[in-house]
Ribulose-phosphate 3-epimerase
Amino acid sequence: MIVAPSILSADFSKLGQEVIDIDRSGADWIHIDVMDGLFVPNITIGPLVIEAIRSKTTKPFDVHLMIVNPEKYIDQFATAGSDIITVHYESTVHLHRVIHQIKDTGRKAGVSINPSTPVIMLDEILPYLDLVLIMSVNPGFGGQKFIESSISKIKKLKEMIVSANLQTLIEVDGGVSDKNIRLLKDAGCDVVVAGNYIFKSNDYESAIRKLKI
């Protein structure tokens, strides 16, 4: 299981040190939530912040774009230091083009789906993806409760990936903790995003270790 702490829940007054701390505590990836206040009802960070913290770790930057018209900003996020760029299925009418735009920068490409979007909508685009991010909460805010029906979505997506003989990773974001990590793993999840569970703990290393165990 790949553990990707979400810095959305970090202390932004010392963000660089927070990234260093979760790196040293066993994080595999660093998950970065980008929100524009349009696609979701919140505003977070942009390429300048990603560029500023890039030197704090060599771990992959897993950048989740919760923004409308992501095609306008792919090059900026790639140049800032992103390793994986994930866009929302619901955020663009030209998803195939955006995926290839990401790949043309040399970065891995992912697509995320909201809780109300069925996984079958990814059938045509799935062969082009390195990763699918299933939102197990409604995107926009940290600290929300895990939506239980996400388990069945993970299982269906895993069946699609296996049936097509693909290596696409399944990532889950929202309400992840040591209480549901086994269910996620058994359903077919490969990567978990954890924000509050890690950053609100007293011991980052212990929290990450619990998820991996």
Observations:
- The chain is about 30% helix and 20% strand.
- The longest helix spans residues 150-163.
- Residues 8 and 91 are 20 Å apart (CA to CA).
- The helical segments are 15-24, 47-53, 74-80, 95-104, 150-163, 181-187, 196-199, 204-212.
